[in-house]
């Protein structure tokens, strides 16, 4: 706690008053002159430097948090966009696969219907162009 100098008014009225005999004692004034003044000045300078460093660190931390928050927000937005794009593409692929499945099913139904036909009924039709060609060449 800071002591008030002799003869100076107290800045804080709640601070206890020191006995004048203690304040004015030769031992107390000698110690103030020899050790306290340079030590107090050095401590005050160190305190001021530390306070400045702490304030700078607080400011740096706030700036860093702000930048980090901005990056996190940006990355979340990008991830959201990518997720929605991916969902759209997956839906398109599902639709295309459904269409492909139905097309393949129709083709299978059509080929199974052809397999049920008489193979002899298809052969003459296939041979007609060849026999017509042979007739033309034999003439």
UniProtKB/TrEMBL annotation:
<feature type="region of interest" description="Disordered">
    <location>
        <begin position="112"/>
        <end position="139"/>
    </location>
</feature>
<protein>
    <recommendedName>
        <fullName>CAP-Gly domain-containing linker protein 1</fullName>
    </recommendedName>
</protein>
<feature type="compositionally biased region" description="Polar residues">
    <location>
        <begin position="7"/>
        <end position="28"/>
    </location>
</feature>
<keyword id="KW-0175">Coiled coil</keyword>
<feature type="region of interest" description="Disordered">
    <location>
        <begin position="1"/>
        <end position="39"/>
    </location>
</feature>
<feature type="coiled-coil region">
    <location>
        <begin position="40"/>
        <end position="110"/>
    </location>
</feature>
């Amino acid at each position: 706690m800071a002591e008030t100098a002799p003869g100076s008014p107290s800045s804080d009225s709640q601070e206890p008053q020191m006995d004048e005999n203690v304040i004015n004692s030769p031992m107390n004034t000698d110690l103030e002159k020899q050790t306290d003044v340079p030590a107090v000045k050095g401590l005050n300078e160190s305190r001021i430097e530390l306070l400045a460093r702490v304030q700078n660190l607080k400011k740096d931390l706030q700036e860093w948090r702000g930048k980090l928050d901005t990056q996190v927000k940006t990355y979340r937005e990008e991830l959201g966009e990518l997720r929605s794009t991916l969902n759209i593409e997956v839906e398109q692929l599902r639709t295309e696969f459904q269409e492909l499945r139905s097309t393949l099913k129709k083709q299978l139904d059509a080929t199974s219907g052809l397999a049920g036909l008489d193979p002899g009924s298809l052969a003459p039709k296939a041979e007609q162009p060849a026999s017509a060609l042979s007739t033309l060449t034999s003439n």
